[in-house]
From TrEMBL, chain B:
InterPro entries: Asp/Glu-ADT_sf_sub_c, GatC. It comes from Candidatus Staskawiczbacteria bacterium RIFCSPHIGHO2_01_FULL_34_27. It catalyses: L-glutamyl-tRNA(Gln) + L-glutamine + ATP + H2O = L-glutaminyl-tRNA(Gln) + L-glutamate + ADP + phosphate + H(+); L-aspartyl-tRNA(Asn) + L-glutamine + ATP + H2O = L-asparaginyl-tRNA(Asn) + L-glutamate + ADP + phosphate + 2 H(+). The keyword Nucleotide-binding applies. Heterotrimer of A, B and C subunits. Its EC number is 6.3.5.-. This is Aspartyl/glutamyl-tRNA(Asn/Gln) amidotransferase subunit C. Keywords: ATP-binding, Ligase, Nucleotide-binding, Protein biosynthesis. One of its GO terms (biological process) is regulation of translational fidelity. Belongs to the GatC family. It is an enzyme of class 6 (ligase).
């Protein structure tokens, strides 16, 4: 007979702890999966992290995992009792990532009844490992937003304070991990959509190097920036999930075989760059202090702190909000009421497009399609889109120059902690400015993690650690050393 | 400030039906966001020319070969269409 204490403890275990537990036959994947499903039922009415709980699929996968685990442990397979680290471990998936046979709404009315025809490459990889899918998590419509308030279905509340947002766009994913409704989650980051909710909810979130993880099966927002990444309880878990999903994929021409280096780096041997532009006007003084304290701690343990400058970062939000809407206006042209999703009948083809898109898309999606259409239209292209592409390059070169002097860059993830639900909904520009520290990294295509390093009252604050291209392992090494000091 | 007519023109290009209140909101929002974009005018073009000295793009295309996929995939894809018949997607007449 398993008691409630057992369930509570199970929900705290990390991936390696669960793996050990399976190996030692302390519990089964079905038991762990049921504990998570139970906790989702208990807590999600309040939090609203999930759009869909895939209970049948989860239990089915857990049973299969249990069979494979006992087969491996019996030794008949001749694999020395080994089985994949993620086997039997339950996780949640942002509802912009396709799981075959399950709904994939992208948080939009236009895809409310869309059933995914195939698995995203990342899902295929995790299924191969024997992972267990608990459900699909809430997001801002088509991942456009910083709070999940743009979801067509509901707002995901911050598990640390239910009057506040969970961050976005992968808010459901981050909240599900913070509220112990999943061991880990897959999110996607275009301008900060993994790191911001991870910071707001107090969990670890990695935005991988652009190209490190296949985007096949991720519903596109801005293809030159979108990247799938893990949201986890710990840095170690983050590394495990990243290792499982990374790699070149023939279905994504921008994916690259990771030349990810495996060297060990110690905090006492590294140089940390601190960009002065990321601590200036507009930052909450408590956030600033928490980040500075984390930097001091690294210094105390021997890291060399180097003041650096990223002078063109001040153009990043403007640059980002031209490039992203431009790509959005092209990518979302596919929603025409013909191939999939909502269709509003009309007299002729053109009226059908207008009505379907007019009724299917929410206001933020429309705003970005409009901005993009404007930026790309004849007469404005040079002043907006072309200029933004040029500015993107100088922002990138700022980072490349800085990384000649330092190994990693430390900064806040966001200028403020989680804000109140409804506080910013009338002001699109103030929402856009939430990406001020996260979107420059994306324009450069660099990897960065959000690591929880402190709290203001109940509200967590995340440190952003930015690395060189494909140096995720250096980020993990240093983040995990810092994690232990805090 | 962009005009309501401009908003309506862009909406038509973007194939979006907007309500009157959405048009008014769009006019206000787009104007303030476009004003913010003026920040980019401060970046001197000499600076850009000096820096943009050659983007490195590596061609990463696969071979143009037919890869067999399970029939179930084609079926799943067709099933996603709102209007279909006998395994085909129906479209309104164009001519």
């Amino acid at each position: 007979m398993v008691n409630s204490d057992f369930f509570m403890n199970i929900l705290d275990l990390t991936i390696t702890q669960l793996h050990e537990g399976f190996r030692n036959k302390n519990f089964t994947s079905v038991e762990v999966t049921k504990a998570y499903l139970e906790n989702i039922k208990k807590t999600d009415k309040e939090i609203g992290a999930y759009l869909l709980v895939t209970e049948g699929l989860a239990l089915n996968q857990a049973e299969k995992a249990d069979k494979l685990i006992s087969l491996a442990l019996s030794g008949v397979e001749g694999n020395g009792g080994d089985f994949p680290l993620l086997m039997g471990v339950p996780f949640s998936v942002k509802d912009a990532i396709l799981v075959e046979g399950q709904k994939a709404t992208a948080g939009s009315k236009i895809l409310e009844n869309y059933v995914a025809p195939y698995d995203a490459t990342v899902i295929k990889k995790l299924k191969t490992q024997g992972a267990v899918i608990l459900g699909k998590t809430n997001l801002d419509e088509f991942a456009m937003g910083v709070s999940t308030e743009n979801s067509a279905f509901k707002v995901t509340k911050n598990p640390n304070d239910l009057t506040r947002v969970s961050g976005g766009s992968s808010g459901g994913s981050a909240a599900s991990v913070a509220a112990k409704q999943a061991v880990y989650s897959l999110g996607s980051d275009t301008g900060g959509s993994i790191r911001l909710p991870a910071s707001f909810c107090g969990v670890v979130g990695l935005n991988p190097t652009y190209g490190a993880v296949s985007r096949s099966g991720l519903i596109s927002m801005a293809s030159s920036l979108d990247q799938i990444g893990p949201i986890t309880k710990t840095v170690e878990d983050c590394r495990i999930v990243f290792d499982a999903i990374k790699g070149k994929d023939p279905l994504d021409a921008t994916s690259i075989e990771s030349q990810i280096s495996n060297f060990k780096s110690e905090i006492k041997n590294i140089k940390i760059g601190v960009p002065k532009e990321y601590f200036g006007r507009g930052i909450n003084s408590n956030v600033k202090k928490i980040i500075e304290d984390a930097i001091k701690k690294a210094k105390k343990h021997g890291a060399k702190i180097v003041p650096i400058s990223l002078p063109n970062s001040k153009y990043a939000v403007a640059c980002y909000y031209i490039i992203v809407p431009s790509e959005v206006s092209a990518n979302l042209a596919r929603f025409d009421g013909i191939k999939y999703g909502l269709y509003e009948d009309a007299e002729n083809l053109l009226d059908g497009y207008m009505k379907t898109r007019g009724r299917g898309f929410g206001i933020e999606v429309k705003r970005r399609i409009m901005l993009g259409t404007y930026s790309l239209s004849s007469g404005y292209y040079d002043a907006y889109y072309k200029k933004a592409q040029e500015v993107r390059q100088i922002i990138k070169e700022d980072f490349i120059d800085a990384f000649k002097k330092v190994d990693l860059i430390f900064s806040p993830v966001s200028p403020i902690p989680a804000f109140k639900i409804g506080e910013k909904t009338d002001d699109a520009l103030s929402m856009y400015l939430m990406d001020i520290y996260t979107c420059p990294v994306k324009l450069a295509g660099l990897p960065a993690i959000s690591l929880p390093v402190g709290n203001i009252g109940k509200l967590p604050v995340g440190l952003q650690i930015i690395g060189k291209y494909f140096e995720e392992n250096k980020i993990f090494n240093i983040a995990s050393q810092l994690e232990k000091m805090l | 400030m962009i005009s309501k007519d401009e908003v309506r023109h862009i909406a038509k290009l973007a194939r979006l039906e907007l309500t009157e209140s959405e048009t008014a909101k769009m006019q206000k929002d787009l104007s303030s966001i476009l004003d913010y974009f003026d920040l980019l005018k401060k970046v001197k073009s000499e600076k850009l020319k000096a820096k943009n000295s050659g983007l490195k793009f590596k061609s990463n295309l696969r071979k143009d070969e037919v890869k067999e996929k399970p029939a179930s995939l084609a079926n799943n894809l067709i099933q996603a269409a709102p209007d279909k018949k006998d395994g085909y997607i129906k479209v309104k007449s164009i001519l």
